[in-house]
């Protein structure tokens, strides 16, 4: 329980990667502020599960990541309800694919707002309290697309490259305040959303789910294996530990070799 007494805000944490991170941090004793969308009963069940399994406080904020005022209020809520905001994991994200010539302006604005600007606003709200405490951990969930590009993903690639740059600036600014800032850059992660995509591909092609899984991974990764949300959670736990106290500004690939090519 190495994070007992710490409070972690994890955006986009009601499913997928964010939920895997929240579970991993809770398992180490951190109080958790969940954020994201979903049915009220499902979110209540998640809160109960985390609290019961790990003996930690769990709060939920429905803050809209496109609205800076709501993001600032979420950080203030963590301090008020849980007693602090020591760990900030900027995970919330959306995707839209289209060629640049056809990319809807509204979709561009939404992807940039949620995938990049939300992280800036959350960091701006959380950093003063971290400085006051003399300790903080900021973890930005970027992507392999924060380091390399793919066609049809201009907004996502731009946002994730921006996330890596923002991480580096924060690391420099906070280097002597007891606060680290790092970016995790996953490749393919097996989330419910990706599983649904695999099932749809299998139905469309008539191939097995296993065949579609291999084909999808082979498009980008030398290692034909998905990363699991729990593995990203474990990496977050490490970044919050004393072992990583001088590790800052790093874009950390966990991508099956995607960006080696």
Summarize the structure in short.
Helices cover 49% and strands 13% of the residues. By secondary structure, it is an alpha/beta fold.
Describe the protein in words.
The chain contains eight helices and seven strands; from the N terminus they run E-H-E-H-E-H-E-H-E-H-E-H-H-H-E. With 261 residues, it is an alpha/beta fold. A seven-stranded parallel β-sheet has the order 3-2-1-4-5-6-7, with helices on both faces. Strand 4, helix 4 and strand 5 (136-141) form a beta-alpha-beta unit. Helix 3 runs parallel beside helix 4 (105-133), helix 4 (105-133) runs parallel beside helix 5 (154-173) and helix 6 (192-205) crosses helix 7. The protein folds into two domains: 7-189 and 227-255, Rossmann fold, CATH 3.40.50.720; 190-226.
Task: List the defining traits of the structure above.
261 residues; alpha/beta; Rossmann fold; 2 domains; 8 helices; 13% strand
Principal-axes shape call: globular
Strand order of the largest sheet: 3-2-1-4-5-6-7
Order of helices and strands: EHEHEHEHEHEHHHE
Percent of residues in beta strands: 5-15%
Which regions are unreliable across 5 or more consecutive residues at pLDDT < 50?
Answer: none
Main β-sheet description: 7 strands, parallel
Query: Structural class of the secondary structure composition?
Result: alpha/beta
**Fraction of residues in helix:** 40-55%
- Based on CA atoms alone, the radius of gyration comes out at 18 Å
* Average pLDDT metric: 97
């Amino acid at each position: 329980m190495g994070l007992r007494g710490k409070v972690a805000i994890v955006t986009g944490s009601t499913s997928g990667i964010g939920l895997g991170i929240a579970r991993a941090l809770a398992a180490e004793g951190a109080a958790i502020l969940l954020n994201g969308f979903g049915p009220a009963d499902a979110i209540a069940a998640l809160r109960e599960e985390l609290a019961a399994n790990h003996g930690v406080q769990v709060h939920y904020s429905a803050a809209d990541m496109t609205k800076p005022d709501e993001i600032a209020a979420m950080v203030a809520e963590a301090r008020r309800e849980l007693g602090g905001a020591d760990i900030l994991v900027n995970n919330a994200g959306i995707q839209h694919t289209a060629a640049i010539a056809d990319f809807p302006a509204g979709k561009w604005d939404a992807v940039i707002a949620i995938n990049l600007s939300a992280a800036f606003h959350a960091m701006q709200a959380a950093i003063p309290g971290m400085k006051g405490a003399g300790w903080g951990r900021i973890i930005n969930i970027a992507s392999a697309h924060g380091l390399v590009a793919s066609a049809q993903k201009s907004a996502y690639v731009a946002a994730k490259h921006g996330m890596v740059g923002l991480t580096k600036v924060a690391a420099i600014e906070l280097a002597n305040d007891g606060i680290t800032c790092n970016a995790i850059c996953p490749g393919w992660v097996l989330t419910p959303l990706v599983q649904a995509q695999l099932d749809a591909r299998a139905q469309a092609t008539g191939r097995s789910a296993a065949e579609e899984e291999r084909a999808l991974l082979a498009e980008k990764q030398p290692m034909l294996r998905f990363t699991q949300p729990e593995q990203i959670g474990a990496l977050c736990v490490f970044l919050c530990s004393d072992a990583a106290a001088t590790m800052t500004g790093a874009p950390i690939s966990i991508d099956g070799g995607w960006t080696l090519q």
